[in-house]
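Thread: sanity check for a docking pose with pyridoxal-5'-phosphate

Original post by kr_44:
Hi all, I'm comparing my docking run against an independent structure prediction. Below are the sequence and the ligand SMILES. Could someone generate the full complex and paste the structure tokens? I mainly care about where the ligand ends up relative to the chain.
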Amino acid sequence: MNQERNRPSRPDRRIEEYCNASSRGKVFPRGLHPPISPGGKDPADHDLPTLEQIREAGVRIRPHIWLTPTVHVESAQLYLKMECWQRTGSFKVRGAFSKLLTLDREQLARGVVTASAGNHGIGVAEAARYLGVECHVFLPEGASAAKLTILRNLGAQLHIAGRDYDECEAEALRWAERTGVEFIHPFDDPAVISGQGTLALEMLEQIGPAEAVFVPIGGGGLIAGVSRVLHELRPEIQVIGAQPEACPAMLRSLEAGRVVETPCFDTIADGLAGRFVGERTLRACQLWVDEVMLVEESEIRRALRWLLDTLHVVVEGSAAVGVAAALRRPELRPAAVVLTGRNIDTRTLLNAVSTEE
Ligand SMILES: Cc1ncc(COP(=O)(O)O)c(C=O)c1O
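Reply from moderator J.T.:
Ran it for you. Here is the predicted complex with pyridoxal-5'-phosphate included:
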């Protein structure tokens, strides 16, 4: 195993920060975490993609995704990577194409199945439609109406199963095993992580110097890909993950040093609601993410309003989580935020932005 690769990039500063970390324990210096399992693990042991593999994914998916702009909000010194304007309404289509384009003919002929609260399912359904492949999407009860409509229009076969994402995933996995249809994991898959990482390659060409990049975390596939790219190409930029207070699975798993089941309560950030993160995505956060912040529901609503007031841009709650974190940390400027998606019900949006805090 190559110990050098596991070393923190700036050990002295990181250790000092670690010692000064707030009592809420939200600062995680890269590389100082206990290993997932005794003996330690090299990134390669967890199949984390290399920069080269992320670049290859970029070439693979290039004809199928849109190059999204990065908008510079000068007054706030923020760069916003507009994945809310991506095909299908979220970055998830990157990982979906990246994965499906690695399947062989026989796998594709059997079709694909996935479990998703929405955006990943939409991405997979879009990629499957393009490839002429049958697509089954398992969704938890209460999935967003906006996302259900999009999925239906894409011709996906929908299965409502389970009270939350994790129950729904268990059902989908059982079904995949029974039928032999390929299960497309929403975050803990190297090809999916590579696809999500491609947005960071694009973003780095679009932004100037930056102190930090803020990234919302659900299962952690997005931040795994983004942090890998930043670690390799711009290690001086801090990578800050953001989760709703209601669903802090990545933060709790980082604190525990292993994937731990974490209660998840109602949140407007429906794409970030899950009780588990992945083994790979946790490892990526341990290695390359500087900090994970928790934001309150009122801060997410405020961020939705801020985007409307400042830019007249609509995003979904999950995307606003990154903005909420950035607004709380004005000392980290200039900074970039990934606006991850726009698939929000009109009623949910209107309620959120009209609530007086
Ligand atoms: C809009 C949006 N943002 C962020 C995320 C988080 O992505 P990940 O699960 O890869 O952490 C999701 C996941 O579904 C999402 O839909």
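The first strand starts at residue 70 and ends at 73. Hope that helps with the comparison, let us know if your pose agrees.
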